[in-house]
Structure formats: C-alpha cells, structure tokens
Amino acid sequence: MAATATFQYAVRDRNGQVVTGKIEADSPAQVASKLKSMGYAPLKISAVQSGGLSTEISLPKIGSKVKLKELAIFARQFATMINSGLSMLRALSILEEQQPNKHFAGVIGEIRAEVEAGSALSTSMAKHPDIFNPLMINMIKAGEVGGFLDAVLVQVADNFEAEVKLRGKVKSAMTYPVAVLVMAVLLTIGMLLFVVPTFAKLFSDLGGTLPAPTQMLVNLSDFLKVAIVPLLVLTVVFAIVWTRVKNTDRVREFVDPLKLKMPVFGGLFQKIALARFCRNLGTMLHSGVPILQSLDIVADTSGNKVIAHAVRDIEESVRRGESLTTPLSQHKVFPSMVVQMLAVGEDTGALDSMLGKIADFYDQEVEATTEQMTALIEPLMIAVLGGIVGSMIIALYMPIFKIFDLIGGSG
Question: Is the pTM for the entire model greater than 0.85?
C-alpha cells in the first residue's frame, strides 16, 4: 500500500483567483484529480519533503509567450470545429490535445474546465489577459450574445492573420539592412582590434609622423582595446533595460511621435498604424461590439500613442453625440482620404466595411513601401559598408605611400 505524502498546490478558482494550500494524497495525479473534482484548475503541484524542501512536480511556464500566429491558428481551428457541429467543450479538448505550446495548452485546459463549470467562454478568456487581448475577448463576447460565435472566430482569425502578414512584411524589409549594419559594425570592430594594431606597430618601428586619418584610426583602435568590454556590458544592460521600459506609457509618449517623423521610416510606421487601427475597429464593429467600447479597446491596441490620442478624441466626440470623423481632421496622422472615406461610411451606415477597405488599402501601401525601401536600402547599405572598409584601408596605406616617397628621396 503506497504511503501518503503531503503536497503543496496552487490552483485557480472559478473567479480566476489563485489559491494555494496543502493536501495529503498518494500521488500528484491523485492531487490533480481531487482538485479538479472541487472545481479548481491546477497550476502547480509539488511534494513537501521532510527536510522542509519541496520538489517541483509540475510547473507550467506562466511567463511563456503565446505568439499571434498561434492565436490565429487557434481561432481558425476553433471556428471550423464549432461550424462543423462539435460542442464547445469537445472543440476545446481537441485544441488542448493538439496544441504544441505546453503553456498555451494548459491555459486552454483551464478555459475548458471553467466553461464546463458554467462560465462563459469570454469570461474564462478574460482571466488570461497576457494571452487574449481585449479585442478578441469582446468580439467573442458579442458572438456569444448574438449566437454567431463561429463567424466571430473567423473574423478574429482573419484579423490576426492579417496582422501576422503585416508584421512579416515589415520584418522581411528590415532583415537585409539590419544584417548589413551588423556586418559593418563587426567588420569595423574586427579591423580596429586586429588589423590596425599590426599596422600601428609597423608605423611606430619605422618612425615619422602619421597622416591625420591614420592617426585617428590608430587612436580609435587604442581606445577600443580598452573600452570594448565596458561597451559590451553597457550594450547588454541597455538592451535589458530597453526591453523592460519600451512599452511603458512614459517611453512611448516620447518615442511614438518620433517614429512618425523619421525621414525614411516615418511614412511606413504611419501606414502600419493606420492599417491596424482601421482593421481592428472595423472587425469589432462588424462583430457587433458597441462603438464606444470598440473605440476604447482600439485606442489601447493601435500600437502608437499618436493614434491612441486621436481615437480618444473620437470617443469623446461620439459620447457627446457628435460625428465620428469630426475630430480626425484635427490630427495630422490621419490623411484627408481616410477622413473623407470614414465620413462616407458613417453617412451610409457602412462604417465597418469602409474601415475594412481602408485597412486593405494601407496593407497594400505597406507592401509597396517595403519593396521600395528594400530596393533603395540594398545598394545604399552596400555603398555604406564599402565606404567604411575602403576608408579604413586607404587610411592604413597612406603612411606606406609616404615611406616609399622617403625611400625614393633618400636614394
């Protein structure tokens, strides 16, 4: 007969609160079964050792990130199953079993348990804001109330897939220039650390005064030999700090307006923000989410504080019973074409379809802009890389030409 042991557990109750405690059982599986029968969703189960230490039995990666592409696939498959006649619980069970992301699979299992206990799907999803954003939750809530959940899930999948495609275009456009920039930096550092010191020793042995460009290169090499380690540490520290603060309101209030004013990339960032705003708002309105609630959510998911402030002005205008498009003309981030098209959509009662058309237009504009930028940046980056390496080589060989002149003069 197996000896019972004491287990520590952490569970999520039906209200979404995390509850911890201890329980005696024969095995972790028995603990999980008991907790599920009590209406809890287990998060962690660990055996309490006699020495006061605990051995972790199961610890899901609570901080794991669920990618937007995974959410799009989840929504698409969920919609297909619901539309095919499967029950919601059966569909969630299948999605949990076939989900390769273990953290996401655990969350789907929690949602299934809560739905089985009588909670609404949107309410269960709202307990996981790190995975399901307000846009998705409110659209699903509207679909549950209106009885067209499968159609809403299709719209969610379309929205996420369009966003994934948009991000992919931007990443593909940025990959080449970033790769060339990194290569240029590494080549420059390599020459300064390994090539220039060799020439510097040769120059010092021969004596004489170095030309100004060569002397600058030697000085930079000497500085880098001393400063390379502190610079690497500062770079790592800056990267860590930036990762933590880049999404804070204070930083974004400063950075987001600068993005739109950048010489080459500003127009691209503006088109991306407009496409995201129009697509999100159009999708929510088409799903039956009230316009004030839609505007409130879209302001937080626009990805740019300039757009967010404009949406807040629109929200206040609508709240006062005024036109949706009146405040847009006061914000330069919205081109006159967008304002006019939204005004027509508002007058004709087809605002959601008009927003969809604007989003499609800017998706095409982003694609065209990225292609133009790639075509422009490729030769430009090659020229920059060649210019850096060529300038360093010329600076290194200038003293050699001077030495030849000295030898010829002495002869």
Answer: no
